[in-house]
DNA sequence: CTAAACCCTGTAGTCGCTACGGAGTCAAGC
DNA sequence: GCTTGACTCCGTAGCGACTACAGGGTTTAG
């Protein structure tokens, strides 16, 4: 009755790479599935759901450890979800910090871009890396 | 005359971890330095400068391979800096893409945050991971 | 002279996969 | 029954950018 999937079918169904599925099993994110006589893994619908959960978590930037924790929380129907909420908030903060980081990089890089000197020794871009000064700084050379 | 640095001094001077310096040497970013009779590395001021260049590149998010390329360009005084500029532009695009990515994550996570159900089975947060639906979706529960 | 601080090499761990090699298994067509 | 091709198995190694040992040798200050 219950439809069984081979690992290839599970991969197609869940959108998770086949080798990644085996990796998740080794990592303890997926339980060890039943096996056929010849040792082939056999999965059920619930595994598709679990894998999609994991995939979605990855798309949202959670680490595998965080996803493991979320899965454990989801499996405990009577535990409060405050912990899950805390995980989300921490993760949000990490993402915001990362965005700040990248925006700082972007701003600095934008200042460097557009140098078209014909000689590397006058390239404000390479100089900027050298000296932390940018084209627009006091002793800038014409570029 | 030329002040020589041990690896520890170079580390303090450049702000790059001592083990990382050795790693950069193995990776071909730093030339192999002179050695004392007992095998200790001896560095010069130019190495401090080179390491700072690398550090600055890392702060701007360049990969070690990209930094290697930039260093090569900086060492070629007569080559045009157009190549360096292209590297910077490509890197800028990658950063912008990454920011977009993170902002998408942030937006989705923000929708999930704030659930305070007392039971995981009603936690919109975990459900959202399960079903791709969020609290604010049609069948949202009071939270 | 001794102890602390430094340095050496080589190797293994992190994270989240991905890719291989070399084997065994299964289903379909002839 | 036999072949072919697609699938699966396992174990291991690679990526990038470090970081952290272990188990030694060296230098320096008191």
Automatic annotation (TrEMBL), chains A, B:
Which SUPFAM superfamilies does this UniProt record tie to the protein?
Putative DNA-binding domain
Domain of life according to the entry? Bacteria
Q: For this UniProt record, give its keywords in alphabetical order, as a comma-separated list.
A: DNA-binding, Transcription, Transcription regulation
Cite the Pfam families for this sequence.
MerR, MerR-DNA-bind
Q: Name one GO molecular function term.
A: DNA binding
Positions of the HTH merR-type domain: 4-73
The molecule here is called: MerR family DNA-binding protein
């Amino acid at each position: 009755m219950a439809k069984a999937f081979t690992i290839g079918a599970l991969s197609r169904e869940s959108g998770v790479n086949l080798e990644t599925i085996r990796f998740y099993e080794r990592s303890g994110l997926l339980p060890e599935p039943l096996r056929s006589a010849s040792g082939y893994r056999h999965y059920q619908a619930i595994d598709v759901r679990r894998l999609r959960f994991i995939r979605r978590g990855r798309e949202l930037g959670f680490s595998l450890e965080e996803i493991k924790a979320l899965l454990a929380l989801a499996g405990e129907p009577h535990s409060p979800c405050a912990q899950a909420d805390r995980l989300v908030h921490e993760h949000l903060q990490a993402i915001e910090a990362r965005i700040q980081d990248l925006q700082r990089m972007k701003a600095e890089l934008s200042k460097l871009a557009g140098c078209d000197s014909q000689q590397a020794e006058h390239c404000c871009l390479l100089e900027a890396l050298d000296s932390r000064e940018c084209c627009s700084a006091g002793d800038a050379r014409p570029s």
